[in-house]
Amino acid sequence: MNRFEYARPETLAAAVALLEEYGSEARLLAGGTDLVIELRNHWVEPKIVIDLKRIPELAPAIVEGNGILSITASTVMADIVANEQVQRYFPALAEAADVVGSVQIRARATLAGNICNGSPAADCAPPLLVYDAVVVVAGPAGIRRLPVDDFIVGPGKTALADNELVTAIELPIPDRAYGSAYQRLTRRRGTDLASITLCCGVGPDGVTRLAYGSVGPRAFLVTDESGALADPNIGIEDKAELLDGMFHLATPSIRSMRASPAYRLAMLRVLGARALETAIERLVKEVA
Amino acid sequence: MSYSVEIKAMINGRSRTLNVAPNQTLLDVLRDEAELTGTKECCVVGECGACTVLVDGRPMNSCLMLAVEIDGAEVTTVEGLESEDGLSPLQAAFLDEGAAQCGFCIPGQLMSATALLESNPNPTVQEVQEALAGNLCRCAGYEQITKAVLAAAKEVGHE
Question: Which residues in chain A are closer than 8 Å to B55, comparing Cβ atoms?
Fold first, then answer.
């Protein structure tokens, strides 16, 4: 690892001031499960690493208020998995957080880091897209909020400027019944990067939201407003064509070693059908 | 200018003050500065679990942490499992079940299993497998390792 300065600011303002000073020469540290590998492999060679874990506003917390569940930037996957409100309102997020890496990784890796890293295979990106998550960003001009769909840009890229950092992720709590489910394809059960990440959400209004990652430069969100996909009285076989159409944004890379494009496209349909069925089951149960 | 930061941490129940460089991992500092070589370096990308230690009671990959991050924390390594009464029940069970073949992964397996039994004293086979999914054994001794964890759970449960 090259030498770098290490800073542990104790206020948000101090962290932003450091970002202002160092710009693209700074890297932010939360869980470090991606960053430390990048540092060791010289994929990044920052002048300074700014550790965010001593900033009180970012300290691990999952707080409900004003119809929003807010997850701070230092909150780790294991805490998200164990949180009752996440389980109740956003089960697909709990399911996604629960399959990240291993127990050791989940004790360290943060949700904010998962999307800031910009991996197309980020496990939590699809549920955040389905649940319409909002990313809270702090910078020199103060706080701005942007939809996660706008935050995610492409491989390794987000809408975050060099002088900004994520302070929290906000999830609007559904004001009525909502069914959702997560599915993931890996080569083995433990500790693997996903070949597909997928989340499906269905509401009583008949709208189906489907988000999928690891099959293109970023995770994509698509919706079906016809009501046909969400209809519990239509068999899954009769939805196949409609469901297929939902995957038009998938362009899996031929260069990935994890799975061939043909296999990913075939499995997208399988995982999509599974997630849709589970989401509908959960919605029906909630409405009952 | 010196390129080191002074940190204080409880390591295996003992308060330690260490001077570490920001670009040193916790794994490097434990092995090279604190002389706790029970923690093993293997994949250094957080996949194999050989470097697993407990930080504030949670199992973590010490290869993926900067040593400066443990300032003020409590760290337990495999050397900290033994008490005055001897090996921990889990360590004893690993011996009894012949869970160690080449032995290289065992410190990490022990740390993950220790954390599991702390939070879940009566795990199922599936729960043991999930808890140890981040600890690879190149000898593929998973059967005996799982048995040892279940045996230790049973023994502690009977006390």
Answer: 107
pTM for the structure as a whole: 0.95
- Answer CATH for A59-172 from 2.160.10.10, 3.40.50.1970, 3.30.465.10, 3.40.50.2020: 3.30.465.10
Instruction: Give the chain A residue whose CA is nearest to the CA of B22.
Output: A6
Sign of CA dihedral B17, B59, B69, A193: positive
CATH level 3 topology of A179-287 = Enolase-like; domain 1 (3.30.390)
Place of tokens 């700074």: A26
Pick the CATH number of B5-80 from 3.40.50.300, 2.60.40.2230, 3.10.20.30, 3.40.50.150: 3.10.20.30
Domain residue limits, chain A:
5-51, 59-172, 179-287
Give A219-222's long-range contacts (Cβ < 8 A, gap of 24+): A219/A120, A219/A122, A219/A125, A219/A126, A219/A129, A219/A152, A220/A129, A220/A249, A220/A250, A221/A129, A221/A130, A221/A149, A222/A246, A222/A247, A222/A248, A222/A249
Domain A5-51: top CATH class: alpha beta
Residue A34 to chain B, least CA–CA distance (Å): 8
* Each residue's pLDDT tens digit, B30-89: 999 999 999 999 999 999 999 999 999 999 999 999 999 999 999 999 999 999 999 999
CB pairs under 8 A between A and B: 87
Q: What would the two tokens of residue A76 be? A: 């780790």
Q: What is the chain B residue with the closest CA to A99?
A: B130
Q: Do A108 and B60 touch (CB under 8 A)?
A: yes
CA A178, distance to chain mean position in Å, is: 19
Residue A95 is inside which H or E element, if any? helix A91-97
**Residue A78 burial (CB count, 10 A):** 19
- Asked if A79 and A30 touch (Cβ cutoff 8 Å), the reply is no
Interface residue of A37, A102, A108, A117 to substitute, partner B, most B CBs within 10 Å: A102
Spatial contact of A88 and A161, defined as CB atoms under 8 Å apart: no
Q: Where are the domains of chain B?
A: 5-80, 89-158
Q: What is the CATH number of domain B89-158?
A: 1.10.150.120
pLDDT digits (tens, 9 = 90+) for A58-80: 999 999 999 999 999 999 999 99
Contact by Cβ (8 Å): A279, A181 = yes
